[in-house]
């Protein structure tokens, strides 16, 4: 009994000691989160940003980025995120390691638990937790990731100009990316596991009418071939059980993304795939004072530059919200 009281006392002390109040909290550290931090800092909101499991986000697993304006010679994705972070820090953002593990948005200030051990109270919350590409789960796919295996044709297709490539997936993203690749690469092999596509009719028609897109129906990917770079794909026709090899220099995976929104399930409005819903033309969620930006609320564009733009919107929306509250 005595022990319990001491223990309970320590626990209470810990909870009290580990709660911190901030003005503006940003969770997530891709281009959206860092841009929100830059704008929020310059607006005097003293933002605190928690980086999450993968500081820098999806760009830290890409190689060269050539389509972000302002880098005429291109830049490596991880370096770009270091630059974003430095800029946010220089503006005064308080950037910290840590993962949001729980939220309570039922009252103000909002409460966000970090690493299951500390609570942050905040007047405004900016969610920039991003999305994660889904992968097939093959060891060879993981080993050659960044060396010819990519989950973003728009980011990496250009490196395979004039070469043969493969793409797996049959949704709108896979169609869009296959069409994009068809303009750059010699031949695009599209690997589809069923005998039909999930994509919208218009996208399917475009793909099927494109001469250099070669659709392989009923086809499973068995292995990505190559030592240090992709040399080909071993595939299986799941109707005939025949294995074959398609020689390609790159393998694009377009089987969908998962928004990192599980923390907000049942709290914030989201679509059936889990993307947070923001009010058109803004970063506002269904809870006033909670804003969402970047890939966690964007299943269409998913580019670094669009994520950064929406991060700017979230900071400006937060600034206006806090200003109206008289903060
Ligand atoms: P989807 O979930 O729509 O499609 C995923 C595709 O990947 C499906 O064809 C699925 O096959 C296939 N797939 C999943 N797992 C595997 C696997 N292990 N092996 C092989 N194939 C697999 O994802 P998208 O990213 O394409 O689209 C997401 C949402 O965004 C959709 O609502 C889409 O309409 C929308 N979107 C809209 C765009 C636009 O309007 N311009 C552009 C891009 C996306 P199967 O069909 O057999 O399940």
The CATH topology of the largest domain corresponds to FAD/NAD(P)-binding domain
Integer average pLDDT: 93
Distance N to C terminus: 46 Å
Q: How big a fraction of the residues is strand?
A: 25-35%
Shape: elongated
Quickly count the domains.
2
Instruction: Specify Rg, calculated over alpha carbons.
Output: 23 Å
CATH level 1 class label of the largest domain:
Alpha Beta
Strand segment tally? 19
Q: What does the largest sheet look like? A: 7 strands, mixed
CATH superfamily of the largest domain: FAD/NAD(P)-binding domain
Question: How are the SSEs ordered, and which strands pair?
Answer:
Blueprint: H1 2-17, E1 19-27, H2 31-42, E2 48-50, E3 64-65, E4 75-76, H3 77-90, E5 94-96, E6 100-104, E7 110-114, E8 118-127, E9 131-133, H4 139-143, E10 149-150, H5 153-156, E11 164-168, H6 172-182, E12 187-191, H7 201-209, E13 213-216, E14 219-225, E15 232-237, E16 242-246, E17 250-253, E18 257-259, E19 290-292, H8 304-325
Parallel strand pairs: 1-2, 1-8, 2-5, 8-19, 10-17, 11-12, 11-17, 12-13
Antiparallel strand pairs: 3-4, 6-7, 7-8, 9-18, 14-15, 15-16
The protein binds NADPH dihydro-nicotinamide-adenine-dinucleotide phosphate (NDP).
């Amino acid at each position: 009994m005595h022990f319990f009281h001491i223990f309970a006392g320590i626990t209470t002390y810990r909870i009290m000691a580990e709660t911190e109040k901030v003005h503006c909290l940003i969770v997530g550290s891709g281009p959206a989160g860092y841009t929100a931090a830059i704008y929020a800092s310059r607006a005097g909101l003293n933002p605190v940003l928690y980086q999450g499991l993968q500081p820098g986000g999806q760009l830290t697993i890409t190689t060269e980025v050539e389509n972000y304006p302002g880098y005429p010679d291109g830049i490596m994705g991880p370096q770009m995120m270091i630059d974003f972070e430095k800029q946010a820090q220089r503006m005064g953002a308080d950037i910290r390691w840590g993962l949001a593990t729980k939220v309570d948005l039922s009252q103000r200030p909002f409460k966000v638990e970090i690493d299951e051990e500390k609570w942050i109270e905040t007047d405004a919350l900016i969610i920039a937790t991003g999305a994660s590409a889904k992968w097939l789960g093959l060891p060879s796919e993981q080993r050659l990731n960044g060396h010819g295996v990519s989950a973003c044709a728009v980011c990496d297709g250009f490196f395979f100009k004039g070469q043969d490539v493969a793409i797996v997936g049959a949704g709108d993203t896979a169609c869009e990316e296959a069409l994009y690749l068809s303009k750059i690469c010699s031949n695009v092999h599209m690997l589809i596991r069923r005998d039909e596509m999930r994509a919208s009719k218009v996208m399917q028609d475009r793909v099927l009418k494109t001469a250099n897109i070669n659709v392989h129906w009923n086809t499973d990917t068995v292995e990505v071939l190559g030592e240090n770079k992709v040399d080909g794909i071993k595939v299986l026709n799941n109707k005939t059980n025949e294995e074959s090899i398609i020689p390609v220099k790159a393998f694009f995976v377009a089987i969908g993304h998962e928004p990192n929104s599980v923390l907000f399930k049942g709290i914030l409005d989201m679509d059936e795939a889990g993307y947070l819903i923001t009010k058109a033309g803004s970063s506002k969620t269904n809870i006033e004072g909670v804003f969402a930006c970047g890939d966690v609320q964007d299943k269409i564009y998913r580019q670094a530059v669009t994520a950064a733009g929406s991060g700017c919107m979230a900071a400006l929306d937060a600034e206006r919200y806090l200003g109206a509250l008289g903060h």
